[in-house]
Amino acid sequence: MVAYRTGDVTVRILTIFTLAMLSLACTPNETRVEAPQGATTANKPAGKAAPAPTRPTVVQIEDKPRVERFNSLLMLASEDVPERDGIRDPFRYTRAIVTTELDGLRYYFYQPGNIRSIVGFTFLNDGSPRINPPGLTRNGPRREYAFLFADRARENIHLAINDDVKLSGRFSHDNMFRELHFFPRRQLPSLKVDHGKGLIRVTLPTGEPVVFDSETKEITSGVLQESPIDFNTSRHLRKNPRVTYRGDYLAITVAQRGEAPRRAKVWGQPKTAEVHYPSRYDKPCTISPARIWDQRPKPGDSDPKLTMLHDTDEELFAVIEKHCNWNLSALREQSPRLIKTGGGR
Prior knowledge:
- This protein has 345 residues and is of the alpha+beta class.
- The chain has helices spanning 8-26, 72-76, 171-174, 313-324, 329-334; strands spanning 33-34, 57-58, 96-99, 105-110, 117-125, 142-148, 158-164, 175-183, 190-194, 199-203, 209-213, 219-222, 224-226, 243-245, 250-257, 265-266, 269-270, 273-276, 285-287.
- It has a nine-stranded antiparallel sheet with strand order 3-4-5-6-7-8-15-18-19.
- The longest helix has 19 residues, at 8-26.
């Protein structure tokens, strides 16, 4: 020890240092140390302390069991079949939303039986060169893609698209909605992220792919095609999200500004749905949403239920064939045979 002053001051410093060292030596050590492998204490001579191991193994004692972290990207990539046909009433609108490690990508989940399960995912294009240029210069304008499958059931699997132009600040004026429903419904939508190529690959209920740029969230390839957001200042002339299906199967699409797209009548005006079967028919067929979704309100409510009227793909195909005079036999052969399960329809 280096003393900076002589006399009593130096003595006091030495005394304080000695007491501090003794205090540390007497402090009990609560860390458990495991003896080296093969070491025993049976033959130790009395009165002799066992030599301390040179590389002690510290045993950590945990008060609580370790909980595995939910791997959202791994779960989103799982290509699962629907767990039931119809949505169980307690879980029709039950969901929460959480962010992921990928910027702009979130997932919906619910927890029946305290087990977290994914019931949808969504991502935002809040500014991109081709689809949403205004979003690059001001905050607000966006296109959102939401792939939803409530209660992991077949009944209401769909893609909801929202163009929010942020021009007036009024929800009913600025928000343009479109839904796409794909048939046959073979699987729940899934998502895989290719970090190396910067791509998001979504698999539709039909098993077909749609690929997005992970940075801009613009569609780059696959069976969906998109056009830029319409920023017309006239809400009456502005077009709903222009996203079209060009795959091998069937898609039903409905669109509306500021209201639920499935309504058969909005502000007193009748609305139509479009049925697309592009691999066989060049032009879409129009049909009233009332032929597809329940327009009756719940008891004591003024809003319609808007739940699917048909329990199976085959039932829906029969309605489309009769109304559109189409032949859907090829789709019917590929439709899954549905099995009633656990509380669903």
